[in-house]
């Protein structure tokens, strides 16, 4: 008959030390050392997880540099300073308003299924469930959503409108959505203890809907209410390409976004020091493995979307276009973001392939409807984000869903993986709710700004360029020799024999 296990108490250890003169003192010493070492392991675990999350936050914040370069390269040179300034404001205004209001709406305690409570929700920091890196990480997501929207309304929007919408989006609109689907008691969250939506909740792991659809739908309404840029469509409706001034910046920005996505998707685990084994130390398989798998699925979806776009656009347009490939790559990333942690790598290839055609299809539809989005942000983030939500409902793997979200062993998973329709139904609800919420809030805001004449710049300023008319001059210095060699400029003002030039 097996002996009962020993506990860390002097009464259990004394018999083992009966030959020792001071057995009690020796036993107490051993127990104290054991508890000290155990406590240090606990401290180390917190340190590892918080460092991991903090490093992930740095990666996601680096995506702002990618956004800035991508946006700058995608607009004409005469609007470079304007679009760069909007990226700075997205981060700065977003930081303040997310601190004052947004984080509380998203994760404030106590909360309910619809909205968090208590402004200045960071007042209870640090605690076991929330520490400062968590706030920083969530802030980087909020400003990412705002950055998406800025691309849709580029080259024709008053700067004051950027200030207003960015603050509103990061302080209220985005946080409410993140509470619904990411807070532990949000009505659509998969982490709820009970009353899960369709017994599954919504698995939007890193935000195909929460981040990308929110930013994309907000940008859609802004661009629709503003209308297309001057010269974007001919009188008969034929689309005219208004090419950005630097493909180099577009490519560099895309690579920076790619790099940052390894914090966006794998970082959404929030913790890495967690074993999936039955006992500590019994398995080499744990959350660190899931983090690695998530990085792999992210990579494969983006790569597949890029190659599909490369050959697809070659067949459609007859040439190889680097900016289209960059957008296709980002569309694959936006799509896989929601299900990156719960799908197999082979499924990520399907995700990226379909995402590329979704983006190309929405771009064709945009031209037909005379919809103008300089960075294809609504099509890319809104359209591909919606596909990513549907994709997860189809391909989520049973084992991965159980490992990451726990709960009932028969929890719903992907329809095409044999898991039934419940997860997919929850995801359809998410799409409808996000479209409705963002349309009501951001659509109304843009409409009010339009009526107050605070949204679109005057046509003469748009033609001349926003840099010389609103920001004190051009972003680049042009010499007379450069002008003679083909830099197209026009005179936009003259004072004391000084000629101001706007780049066309």
From TrEMBL:
It is a multi-pass membrane protein. The keyword Manganese does not apply. GO terms for biological process: ammonium transmembrane transport. The chain crosses the membrane at residues 51-72, 84-107, 134-153, 160-182, 202-225, 246-264, 346-366, 424-449. It is found in: Cell membrane; Membrane. One of its GO terms (cellular component) is plasma membrane. PANTHER family: AMMONIUM TRANSPORTER, AMMONIUM TRANSPORTER 1 MEMBER 4. This is Ammonium transporter. It comes from Eruca vesicaria subsp. sativa.
